[in-house]
Backbone:
């Protein structure tokens, strides 16, 4: 095959700054086409001519007989929308990329509940000083019993942070060597003692609704639930009932059964609930970091090596 | 001296539960009189008959020639209101008691700023989803350069927590062996590189206005300031100007020049400012813990030992 240009399709809305950053670092002989510089059917047509793609294109674009795509680097960790693909194009995700920001959002949310930073924010907006009246309702994260569902990069980043709070931490995972709980029965037996349940499970067929009514029922009335995994892994109506009936003490929710969270969701009105609107993975350096990862991974592919973070679309992780 | 009843004066408003807790644990032969069970001049009269006191009575009560008080256990760490006393009654404070809750409030406040939990709380109150639009403005505490002013129990509790965030941490203190900065000049030279300045200094004549206009001027525009020490140790008008002119990126303030914070303070309107209303030391177990400390310390006094946490009123710590 004669030497030809490598065509990249960037299915992401990048700032001019980040486009420039990417263009300045393209491999020799490569050109990049950006989603927002095309309109209508030209998008799909250009996509069909691309060798490699960055971003999360519509799943059906990957089904076309006409495409010559050899690899996609998603800009997310999740990839459930691609799990039903008939064709097997290699797909990499951003596994691990969001661990630190997600861990900080979930610990920040828990501290906000314990130290009443949500209430203090609302008081500030009303210029209302209540001060010491809040003190007796404050809690400490120090020494709390925490159960982490999942043993991936987010769970391990949370674990590292919680050491400084001297929390008593246990992992739930089916295969991780350090997991204390391996079955739902073991988990159910331990939950009455837990102060905090943090869900980091990925969205798969097996984890759907994992945080179920019976798990929530086992928790004590001061316990809090955090979800930084996937919305599908929590039985949201059951969680809502537990919150409304004060059978648990609060929640920190980054992900939801439906996103954006519908305006009529009763979660908006629940006290002691922090809604972080699926921003957990965000950071000012996020786009730049993702592009850098794509470029590094692309250089592996071009060198004939296996890219990092190849996902198994059938298994779901 | 013939055996007589030991009289305790409790200058604190305790819940019935905590009164019962205290009464159930009094030393043999001791009786307790509670502030809220007396009215008018009877309060001062009963105080004059007490051998030991718990709480923070008006400073001039300790000046009377008629009192027979031998020791006071304050329910605060601060004791500046007693520094001008002419008489030298032994006074213990609650040094160290508030370290953990204060550390959690300040780290929770910093995470709230970095992970936008204040904005997300206001969005929740309006049922408004903006989600990913916030992501590019989020920051990570991970790896940040932090300078801690002070080397007391609060500073060391904060240091322990920040290990899990892999912050690069330096202490400022005149005498602590681990302090990296010992003079204001050394501090000024280091500040341009700092991401977070956390003030835990006690309120003394020497620390008044320590966080001054020149310190704030040295900081970069994304840097944030936290104050969990004393309001007097920060030049509040200079801090306000730095915030309003966006010369610093935000603040977490637990203490203020005047408390309650006056309703016309421009701090109420400053974005990127978390006001925790002097609740930093609070926790649900706070009153119970303070009473337990008093009872333990009282048993030392009654055994003829020196009580813990005796303060030097002249030096101020």
Residues:
């Amino acid at each position: 095959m004669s030497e030809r240009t490598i065509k990249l399709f960037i299915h992401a809305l990048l700032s001019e700054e980040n486009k420039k950053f990417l263009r300045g670092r393209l491999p020799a002989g490569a050109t990049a086409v950006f989603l927002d510089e095309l309109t209508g059917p030209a998008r799909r047509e250009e996509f069909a001519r691309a060798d490699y793609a960055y971003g999360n294109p519509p799943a059906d674009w990957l089904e076309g007989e006409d495409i010559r795509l050899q690899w996609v680097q998603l800009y997310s960790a999740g990839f459930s929308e691609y799990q039903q693909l008939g064709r097997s194009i290699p797909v990499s995700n951003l596994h691990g990329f969001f661990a630190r920001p997600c861990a900080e959002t979930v610990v920040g949310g828990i501290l906000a509940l314990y130290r009443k930073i949500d209430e203090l924010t609302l008081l500030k907006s009303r210029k209302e000083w209540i001060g010491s009246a809040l003190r007796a309702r404050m809690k400490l994260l120090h020494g709390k019993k925490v159960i982490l569902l999942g043993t991936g990069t987010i769970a391990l980043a949370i674990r590292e942070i919680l050491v400084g709070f001297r929390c008593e931490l246990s992992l739930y995972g089916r295969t991780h060597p350090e997991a204390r709980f391996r079955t739902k029965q073991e988990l159910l037996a331990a939950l009455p003692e837990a102060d905090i349940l943090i869900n980091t499970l990925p969205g798969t067929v097996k984890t759907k609704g994992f945080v179920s009514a019976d798990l929530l029922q086992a928790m004590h009335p001061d316990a809090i639930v955090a979800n930084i995994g996937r919305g599908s892994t929590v039985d949201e109506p059951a969680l809502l009932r537990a919150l409304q009936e004060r059978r648990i003490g609060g929640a920190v929710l980054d992900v939801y059964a439906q996103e954006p969270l519908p305006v009529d969701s009763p979660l908006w009105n629940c006290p002691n609930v922090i809604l972080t609107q699926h921003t957990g993975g965000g950071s000012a350096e996020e786009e730049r970091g993702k592009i850098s990862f794509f470029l590094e991974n692309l250089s592996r592919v071009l060198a004939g090596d296996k890219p990092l973070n190849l996902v198994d679309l059938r298994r779901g992780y």
